[in-house]
Predict the 3D structure of the following.
Amino acid sequence: MPALLLFRLAARLGFALAACLLTFFGSATAFAQDAPASSQPPLTKASLYSPTTLVIFNRTVPDSESLACYYAAARQIPARNLIPLDCSSDEEITRTQYHETIAEPLRKTFLNEGWWMPHRDLSTGAQSLRSEFHILALMHGIPLRIKDDSGRAPDSEPLSGNGASVDSELATLGRPGTTLKGPIPNPYHRSESAFHAAQLPMQLVGRIDAPSLNRCRAMIDEAILAETNGLWGQAYIDLDERQPLGNDWLRAAADAWRKLGIPVTVDVQPGTFPSNYPMRDPILYFGWHAEQVNGPFLNPAFKFQPGAVACHIHSLNATTVRSTTRNWAGPLLARGAAAVLGTVDEPYLQLSHDLGIFSDRLSSGLTFIESAYASTDSLSWMTVAVGDPLYCPFPAPRRALDTAQFANDQWTPYKILRLAYERWGESKPLPVSGLFYKLEMASAKKEFPELMEHLALAAIEQGDVEDARVQFLRAKTAYQDPRDKLRMVLHIGSMEWGANERLAALQTFRGAADEFADLSEAKAARELVERVSKPE
């Protein structure tokens, strides 16, 4: 039942339930009062994994050692877990350089320290070594990718080369042999459990890397800040109907974030989000299929919220993480993302990160690095996870929000949504329609335009275009920032375009371009006018 209809029904049936809800939302401290008090802080994923995390840095790069010390201090990682290497500072190295300056020195350290434990695969009988260290954190200055120097013919099997990301290759450090061609199966793929319980002959390898040392340090700080205060904001997901598999991943990602109560904007129209699209409080971005950064991320005013997680699917999205303008990984990090997923060379889509699995695991309480490895079925291949490996923005079990966190600030509506979905979401006895009714009453009480926008986006998913339009117009009136008002109009135009009402969409986009002509974000409306005007 549409939220608006429920609102009208409540008016006829009486407002006893509504009064209870308004009291509940009006005095937001009621959320916290249900939670039992605890005299001890909960055991976090970071504190669990810190003793079994190795921090690996390049001794020839002063910034690398400095960052290693900074990260170890921030995550309380023991000093003995800092491992220096003497290797190239280039992002790309040869297979020989990888073995001689990275893999073999690490193997010797593991052997000398007694960190290896024999492991036998019960299904195949294969022998390998399992480490007492679960996570390897590579610091800025460690090479990123291994060049394919196998000499294979251009028309040979595409998965037979020996190129890979340094990270994915190091995940196989305990395997016998020194030459790996093509990808190998990832035994942690699709896992729903924490890695420390899996007892697998591999390590999870991530990196803290970015275009600058300052940005690397900020990524660490922002991850811890988001863990401490919560990660609050909206998700933006950009489909490309040319690739069904990738779209399935992205739709699953949208579902995962909706279940957590995060407002999700899904762009289903051709092309990426238009230039200067006015995103609000972006904490999650997943899209594709452009080679170079574009759309909202070229607007000088754009900035992710601290702790944001992002990925733009493209074969070359992480061939470098040091550029603020090339490909995607570096630019997304430079614009404030704390963690990004990528590939250093052509992975073939099915061997990159399944963003649906990634989103499900991250939203369910796994760390960034656990979620990244659970979402890819191959090792010794092209994937990288750039950001604090221990980052856990949505820990499970959920922490109770205290009274102070419900101060009347910009995050209040997102906190209301999060807890509303946890208490009354689809898995709870209350139907979703009842949840929407409660949210609408809350937005009417406090005039939270973010709740109105969320209700409109949810109505689109349910096919209720009329209710979505009403909610978008309510939100446009309630929002104070003209960029948010513009976004509400763009939502309506996109909804019309998706319903094949091209003339109506064209008029809506033109109206937005005129009404908000003074904003730099009006470029998005003008670009949409051009797109919808093109013949099919």
Observations:
- The radius of gyration is 24 Å.
- Confidence is low (pLDDT under 50) at residues 1-42.
